[in-house]
Amino acid sequence: MQVNKVLNFTYAGNSIVKPVCGLNAVPQEGVIHPHEFVFVYQEQDAQERRWQHLTQSLRERLCHYGLEMAILDNHQEPRQSSIAVVHKDAYLIVQSMAYEGVVGEFNLQHILEFGFAPVLTRQIDLLRTLNGLEYVMKTGY
Known about the structure:
By secondary structure, this protein is of the alpha+beta class. The chain contains 4 helices and 8 strands. It has one domain.
């Protein structure tokens, strides 16, 4: 099982994870396991100002549900920005989101890195996922 380390350590070979809010759900040794990813949003050529606004919006929308966020900095693809939302019960949350119609596209590399969490690349998919995630967190998973 692949392990993703937090705070200036590498994950998935060549990425750095920077916590955005909380990280209470991450075990004390500071790692994020693939089954703890709720979803990952990736964007090519993200503008810094827009990316900061997106991060702030996600923080305001999600952190009060006990979800944690981290920015994944992939050195293999420096033009790609990624943000991950994690939770200790992510597997159950992802299953509940699937019942709400939130299903991501999967490939083997994503499953090895992020478990069964959807990996999103379009903003409309991010919005749908956020709406589904908020519904699941409000009503229970």
